[in-house]
Each structure stands twice: as C-alpha cells, then as structure tokens.
Amino acid sequence: MWTLRAFNAMDAADAVRVLTACCASQSWAEKVATGRPYGTVASLKAAALAAFDELDDAELAVAHAAHPPIGKPRPAEGADWSRGEQSRALASAEAVRAELAEVNAAYEHRFGRVFLICATGLTGEEILAEARRRLAGDDRAEAAASVAELRKITALRLDKSFGAGPAATAPGTEVRP
C-alpha cells in the first residue's frame, strides 16, 4: 500500500508501475501519473476513473487481457490480488469449479475474451450464475458489462493500493511512506 505523499513524489516510471497493477493499460497509467500531484486519495481515484472512462476499445482490450480466467489466477504481477479477489470462487466445490471452467471456455469461444467479473466477496455459485446469464446475452450488452466489471476491479485495486476502502491492504506489501 502506498501513501499519497510517496506516490506524488515517485518518478514517472515508478508511478506508472504502481498504477498498471490496478489497470494494465499503459496509456491510462501514464495519464493518471501525469496528473500528479493529487491532494487526496479521493481526487486520485476520481481522476483515475475519469481516465478509465476515456479508454478506447484497444486499451480496454489490453487491460482486459491482463486478467486471468476466474479460478485460474496467473503466476505474475497482480496474481496475489487475483487470488484474493477470487478466493471464495477458488474455495468452491470441485463440481462448481469444473462447471465454471466449462462456462469460461464457452464464454471465451463466443466473445473472444475471458469472462470478467469483480469477484471479491462472490461465491463460485454466484459467479457461475452470472457467467451463465452473461453468456446468454447479446454482444453489445456483454461488452458493456465487461467494461463495467473491469472498472469495478480497477477501483477496488486503487483502494487497495492507496488505503481507501474495506480491503486496503495489497498482498505482500506494507504501508510505504
């Protein structure tokens, strides 16, 4: 977790690295980093989400592609967060995890991307029900739902990075001055 003072004082490359852990779009991270210094965490988050809302389809695809399928966190930077965010799904019964893998595969085949949901606090059964519902939807509605979920994940990770919100501890980190 970072203090706002430390974030504001970082060089640009370090600030971008901190931000890309929240959203993998390089252009988003650069835009948010360029907006420093921020007076409050709330103003940082507002600027970050406003910048998110300006991402084009190509940048959204980059950000989306950085997320692993539900139930299969990737062994890379951000994987601790993915595992934490998916912890209730990962704790589901084997049958639910197997069915979720099948629905994930069907979703990816149909839409060309992994099923994305802000999984924090959701059970495997809840995620599976939402995946089935969205798999049955039309392409346009699903694209909008996917972007909305990506935005929620970005907001949650900003909260974790800067200590705003209920789960304000980034795995494996401590508060840095």
Automatic annotation (TrEMBL):
UniProt pathway: Purine metabolism; urate degradation; (S)-allantoin from urate: step 3/3
Annotated SUPFAM superfamilies: UraD-Like
The Oxo-4-hydroxy-4-carboxy-5-ureidoimidazoline decarboxylase domain, residue ranges: 8-159
Family annotation (InterPro entries): OHCU_decarboxylase (IPR018020), OHCU_decarboxylase-2 (IPR017595), OHCU_decarboxylase_sf (IPR036778)
Coiled-coil portions: none
PANTHER family xref list: 2-OXO-4-HYDROXY-4-CARBOXY-5-UREIDOIMIDAZOLINE DECARBOXYLASE-RELATED
Protein name as it appears in the record: 2-oxo-4-hydroxy-4-carboxy-5-ureidoimidazoline decarboxylase
Top-level taxonomy: Bacteria, Bacillati, Actinomycetota, Actinomycetes, Glycomycetales
